[in-house]
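Lab notebook: predicted structure, single chain.

Context: the supervisor wants predicted structures on file for every construct in the current expression panel, including those that have not yet been purified. This is the next one on the list. No modifications to the sequence; it matches the entry in the shared construct table.
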Amino acid sequence: MKMKNALRLPALLFALAAAAPAARADVVMIVSAHSSLAPSVEQVCHVFLGKIKSPTPITLAEPSGVRDEFYSKACKKDPAQVRSLWGKLIFTGTGTPPKEVANAGEMKKSVAADPNSVGYIDKKDVDASVKVIATVN
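Prediction complete. Output recorded below exactly as produced.
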């Protein structure tokens, strides 16, 4: 009986390790390297939540840990709250959701190409094509 329990322990530890949350990203808000925009974190959240129209928001497509981290830390919203909010805005015709991109490379390319846009990525993905306006962690 003791041997059977000894074999279960490694399996249990493996299951617990697999269920542990992934490491958190250092999320930063970015604009084009050639942009003169300098919105506050609050202003950026208002844009991403459809409360103001400018600058142009660009968001990562779901599922994305960086996206969840951005909305959670910067805007104090979980993914379900963001989907619900945009569902209402779209249904009532009072909002257009942010443009979605698949990954950090596409985010940088889109933000760098439009000096009136704002986005977010993991700090490790920043390069000279964009500039950091705030860290959200």
